[in-house]
Description:
Blueprint: E1 15-21, H1 25-36, E2 43-49, H2 56-66, E3 70-74, H3 81-91, E4 96-99, E5 105-106, H4 110-117, E6 124-133, H5 139-145, H6 154-158, E7 163-164, H7 166-175, E8 188-191, H8 192-198, H9 209-221, E9 223-235, H10 240-247, H11 249-266, H12 271-279, H13 286-306, H14 315-325, H15 333-336, H16 339-369
Parallel strand pairs: 1-2, 1-4, 2-3, 6-9
Antiparallel strand pairs: 4-8, 5-9, 6-8, 7-9
Helix pairs in contact: 1-2, 7-9, 7-12, 10-11, 11-13, 11-14, 13-14
Amino acid sequence: MKPRTAGSATRSPLVSICVPAYNGARFLRECLDSALAQTCADFEVLVVDDSSGDNTAALARDYARRFPRVRVHVNERNLGLVANWNRCVELARGTWIKPLFQDDRLEPECLARMLAAAHPGELLVVTRRTIDFERGVTPALRHAYEPFLSRHTLPGVFGGAARIDAPRFAANMVERPQVNCIGEPSTLLLHRSAFERFGGFNPARVNLAGWERAARVAVHAGISYVDEPMVTIRVHAGSATQVRAASRRFRVQVLDGLIVEHDMASAPAYEPVRLAAAAQRPPVDLRLRLVESARRAKRRARRYADDAFQPDLRAPLEWEDAERRYPLLTAVPARSRATPLAAIMRGVRWAFTRRAGRAAALVRPAMSARPS
């Protein structure tokens, strides 16, 4: 796809670089400078400040005075992290939406390379990223990121393919429903029609909102991938991700992933995943798997609350709220008691079927070779 030039007679830019901001003055200059340095000329930079308590809004307005392509909106009240992402999309004028978090930065060629990777009709492009660990980040946190920089990546899962089609991605979600192999929202480029067709970011989520939003598109439309680091993700102790991880451990580490499984088992947007699960040999019953995951989560809620070193006192209440919001978590308890035995029996049946099929395949050539 060729980007339009700055002189194109259009009412809206090709790309809106959307910066959802909250108390982000520390890194915002570097973030905006990287956005404005793009070699692709046809873009706007939209900063949506979520009623910050620092000088984030003033800094953004100073950029808007100096650079005509920068627009600033300040929410009258604090919407919250994910709801503010959706506010950015509502206010953006571009055909493409490029999320950019206030802590992160883009390489100058980022937009150009991602747009070039988008084939006609494409809805989602993802780029490789690098991680910038700030001073003070603990070794444990660095270690936690390691799998998501090596194994749990699009090249790690799909073998470096530049294009991952929808059925292949849906099959991967059956196998790894809670593993974010795409990356953070700053790695995404989304066509506006993706929001119109499949909805926005889910504000009910504390964690995995970016992953789930991208996956919801990918199971229908696939992914194009730029295997060069066009985005730098900054990790520091004060980031929104780390604050959530520390204060709401059960929600971040257990519950949000479970809700992804719930949506896979029931939400209309995840019908391609259910079809992929049914095509597995043996087939995967996503509803029964959900019940088993829910049972483990319920037990973990009490353990998180009783943790002597880092208790999460919200955990039992958040579990009770999840049961009310997502009835499938406890909808089939009687049936699920037989789940382990049923799963074993299905596995035995399919193993026998596969072996019988292989034996028949060996016998047929031998039979055909006999003299008549």
